[in-house]
Amino acid sequence: xxxxxxxxxxxxxxxxxxxxxxxxxxxxxxxxxxxxxxxxxxxxxxxxxxxxxxxxxxxxxxxxxxxxxxxxxxxxxxxxxxxxxxxxxxxxxxxxxxxxxxxxxxxxxxxxxxxxxxxxxxxxxxxxxxxxxxxxxxxxxxxxxxxxxxxxxxxxxxxxxxxxxxxxxxxxxxxxxxxxxxxxxxxxxxxxxxxxxxxxxxxxxxxxxxxxxxxxxxxxxxxxxxxxxxxxxxxxxxxxxxxxxxxxxxxxxxxxxxxxxxxxxxxxxxxxxxxxxxxxxxxxxxxxxxxxxxxxxxxxxxxxxxxxxxxxxxxxxxxxxxxxxxxxxxxxxxxxxxxxxxxxxxxxxxxxxxxxxxxxxxxxxxxxxxxxxxxxxxxxxxxxxxxxxxxxxxxxxxxxxxxxxxxxxxxxxxxxxxxxxxxxxxxxxxxxxxxxxxxxxxxxxxxxxxxxxxxxxxxxxxxxxxxxxxxxxxxxxxxxxxxxxxxxxxxxxxxxxxxxxxxxxxxxxxxxxxxxxxxxxxxxxxxxxxxxxxxxxxxxxxxxxxxxxxxxxxxxxxxxxxxxxxxxxxxxxxxxxxxxxxxxxxxxxxxxxxx
Length: 595
What we know:
The chain is built from 24 helices and no strands. It has helices at residues 6-18, 27-37, 45-57, 65-100, 106-130, 133-151, 154-158, 165-193, 199-220, 225-239, 253-258, 262-281, 291-314, 328-358, 363-369, 371-391, 395-412, 421-435, 438-449, 455-492, 498-502, 509-515, 522-552, 570-586. By secondary structure, it is mainly alpha-helical. The model is unreliable at 1-43, 50-58, 153-160 and 565-595 (pLDDT under 50).
């Protein structure tokens, strides 16, 4: 064994142990570095230089130029596909309720879609980790297209392509399965196509697709979803190449299937179903204290506990790895995603009802009246993506955006029978300016604090909580809307059968009153609608404030730092070496384990 000066050896050891942990260095790299420090001669600069050169050469090669532009365009088309479908259904709900006389099913048109999306997103995270990212993404688009074919396009839907409200709900649930892997897949693909510092701008562009689809959806209809999906599939198939080995352990297909946490998947689906049914039926179809509702809540609780136990047992092999819940930033990001999804979906679904029911607008005109919210969402998403890319820090932008969302949603609760143009226009602008960052904020946190190998599962977790928030709070908003509507009619027009409006279309108020010979009660019934809708807007406001709290608890990290994973740039390595050399030279520096 070579002899060394004891003080130098101690200083080297302390300098090494005092180095701050970096997420950029994965477990294997950290272990190898630690082992090298114990080996004589491991501090040889020439040897270290060769080792670092090997690491640099092993870094992923990102696509660039025309190829990158084509891939980004295909991903934007895929997200546009999902957003178009969701915005079409939100503005079409009043017309659909007229067709099927199913105002009591409004919540299910959104919740059935989000139910399967939510339940399967964590599983898709595991699939993206274990199987080919490219092939999984293509499969997700294909399943979504099949779901759309099962109910037809929106324009044919209104012409009775779907024979009943139940058929529409089932078709939406099938499409939701594909969506479970589509949006998270687009985000995962971006992680392999762009370095971290460039992703915010791309996320802003993709987030802007939601707003563009929201503008185009009511005007174009769903007939365009199928060809858009086909184009995206062809481009991804021909152009995309992921620099990752899909099956490094050479496992059989069956063994890889068994790694998907099938137990967790089969537990979480009935958990969410029981919870949604309880929230959907409670207070309207059944009393809250009825055995049915109590049984559903108990069932959801028991199944939920079993799911949590399964995740603790499986550890990192679970769909929701427990270690994510020990990371402050991931906890805040998941909370942010949950409350943002809850507030966003609630306001999107019920704001269109205000314009069509209260102001008597058509579906197309209501879509135009939503443009202040939607266009501002597009602009803010793109602008905030560019700001985060330029400034590096996402936390202050997330905080400011949620302040705008909270204020805008709070002002929307003041909508009444005679709200003037200036108010409903301006309030939507405020809310939309805050909503724009919501689509990318939590995802950026995930990709900044997690190693690259954990990005697929982490992204799926974020998407899971965002969809879960939407699914649950659409159901909550539905219950509050129906309760407010029934109570308002019983209070303001007791001579009318309140349930008559509950089982009719949202735009048929005036027609029903003419049929029962009570047109003079129009203002009373409209006020009852406003009362019910106001309750849903308060839900959005509360959720926006909760998302604001979550964003305030985030650490201030920068996307300009090196991306998590196996990559470690020359600058960081050089700084670490220099710091170690300085401390060694000082001899007694770093004795307390701190620099």
